[in-house]
Structures are given as structure tokens and as C-alpha cells.
């Protein structure tokens, strides 16, 4: 793998997803741990913004959580399905960003990217209405050049590339699989950049695999949640975020570890 940027490469932002703080809270049905408190701690530890997925079944983040997160002095990236219910909520709350993701009731977490190429007409309306309300639309897509091109035609200013295949490959001992997964992300990111899209990445990123993704020159933001919430058990959420921030920053200056 290559892709080490020059020292002048733009900073790569870190968005922290606090969904699974809410998952832990909901396991007992009480008020603790509070995902909004986690968001505040994340911002103090170096996160550039907060991501939260308001799922249709409300399995972790709830409507009142999103309202409280919106009240914070921070960039809120609201992940949601492309449904009329969710569009109405986003138009009312007007978060900094809205990321459309595929959603199935039976899945444990988001599985794969949105089929932007197969839903261009419907998604174009989301881009228009959300843009008019002041929210930047992002499409969570697989690192597939056909999907990137569709996102540009739709008018989404941002794409978030699904990094799950790379994360899975990085657990294997097959260098060719790892390289192929990274190459796909690198190509999709470069194409998005050429088409004028801002490129983000997320899903399955850890201390062990984030550096090579952060070193891709076109990558402008990484959204990471489950791993950081898990590491918080062992080292505290603030220290976990600071370490992730350090790894991303080092990768941007070519200091891969």
C-alpha cells in the first residue's frame, strides 16, 4: 500500500459515533450511560464532530438524544435511512450533515453501502431538500466507482466510503486481499475528489488499521464509533479518542506506525 500524503495534506477530521453508548444505556432501560455526555467528552478529547444513527427501530439512539445532540455547539452528522419519516425529522432539526445509509431491521449493524446508482431519482430529492434546509448530504456507499459517479450526479456534496471490507481483510493473513480492499478505497476516493466530492470513510476502523486509510490523500474525515466505545472499557473514552486522533494525524504527515 502507498498513498503517504505530503506534509501539506489537509487535516483529516475525526467524527465520533456515540450510538453504542446508547446501546449500553438501553440494555438496562435507564438513563446511564448518557450518550450526550459521551459526545461532550469526545469533543473535549479532540473529536471534530459527533455522528449518531437514528434508526427506524430506535434500537440505540432515540429522538430525544438527537434533539439534545443538536443543541450542542458541535457539528452533528445524523445518519438515517432514506425514508419520509427520517427526512421530516432531519428537515426539522437541520443538523450540520445528514448521511443516508441502507438499513434493514434484522441487521446488527449497517451491512454494505447504499445503492446510489439504483436510486438516483429518489436520492436527488433528498439532496435538494436537505441542501435547501442547510444540511450537507452524504451518501454512505461502497468504494465502487459506479456508486461514486452516481453520488456526483445526485448532487450529494459528500460521500462516505464503506471501509468494512478493508477492515475485515486486515484481520486476515492474505496480503493480496488487504491490498485489493485498500486499492478499491484509494481509487474511489481519488475519483470522488476529481468529481468535486468531499470524501469520508468509516466502518470497522481500529487503532490497527486506521493509519493506511487516513493516509489516503483524498480522505477528509473518518467516522469511528464501535471500536472507540469498546476501547473505552479498557482505557477510557477520552484516551481512546486521543490515541485515534494521534494515529490519524501521524498518517497525514506520512508517519505511519
UniProtKB/TrEMBL annotation:
Pathway recorded for this protein: Cofactor biosynthesis; pyridoxine 5'-phosphate biosynthesis; pyridoxine 5'-phosphate from D-erythrose 4-phosphate: step 5/5
HAMAP family: PdxJ (MF_00279)
Enzyme Commission number(s) from the entry: 2.6.99.2
Biological source species: Parvularcula dongshanensis
Gene behind the chain: pdxJ
GO biological process, one term: pyridoxine biosynthetic process
Residues annotated as binding 1-deoxy-D-xylulose 5-phosphate: 19-20, 55, 60, 109
Lineage of producing organism: Bacteria, Pseudomonadati, Pseudomonadota, Alphaproteobacteria, Parvularculales
Assembly with partners or alone: Homooctamer; tetramer of dimers.
Name of this chain's protein: Pyridoxine 5'-phosphate synthase
Amino acid at each position: 500500500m502507498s498513498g503517504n500524503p505530503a506534509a501539506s495534506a489537509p487535516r483529516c477530521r475525526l467524527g465520533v459515533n456515540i450510538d453504542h453508548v446508547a446501546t449500553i444505556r438501553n440494555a438496562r432501560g435507564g438513563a446511564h450511560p448518557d450518550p450526550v455526555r459521551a459526545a461532550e467528552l469526545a469533543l473535549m478529547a479532540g473529536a471534530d464532530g459527533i455522528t449518531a444513527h437514528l434508526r427506524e427501530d430506535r434500537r440505540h439512539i432515540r429522538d430525544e438524544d438527537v434533539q439534545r445532540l443538536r443543541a450542542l455547539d458541535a457539528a452533528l452528522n445524523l445518519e438515517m435511512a432514506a425514508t419520509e419519516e427520517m427526512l421530516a425529522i432531519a428537515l426539522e432539526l437541520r443538523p450540520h450533515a445528514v448521511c443516508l445509509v441502507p438499513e434493514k431491521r434484522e441487521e446488527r449493524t449497517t451491512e454494505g453501502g447504499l445503492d446510489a446508482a439504483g436510486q438516483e431519482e429518489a436520492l436527488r430529492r433528498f439532496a435538494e431538500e436537505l441542501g435547501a434546509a442547510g444540511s450537507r448530504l452524504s451518501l454512505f456507499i461502497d468504494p465502487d466507482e459506479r456508486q461514486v459517479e452516481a453520488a456526483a450526479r445526485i448532487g450529494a456534496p459528500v460521500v462516505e466510503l464503506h471501509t468494512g471490507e478493508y477492515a475485515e481483510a486486515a484481520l486476515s493473513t492474505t496480503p493480496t486481499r488487504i491490498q485489493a480492499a485498500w486499492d478499491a478505497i484509494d481509487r474511489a476516493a481519488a475519483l470522488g475528489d476529481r468529481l468535486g466530492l468531499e470524501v469520508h470513510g468509516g466502518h470497522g476502523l481500529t487503532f490497527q488499521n486506521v493509519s493506511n486509510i487516513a493516509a489516503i490523500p483524498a480522505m477528509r474525515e473518518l467516522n469511528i464509533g464501535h471500536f472507540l466505545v469498546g476501547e473505552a472499557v479498557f482505557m477510557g473514552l477520552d484516551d481512546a479518542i486521543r490515541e485515534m486522533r494521534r494515529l490519524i494525524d501521524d498518517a497525514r504527515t506520512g508517519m505511519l506506525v
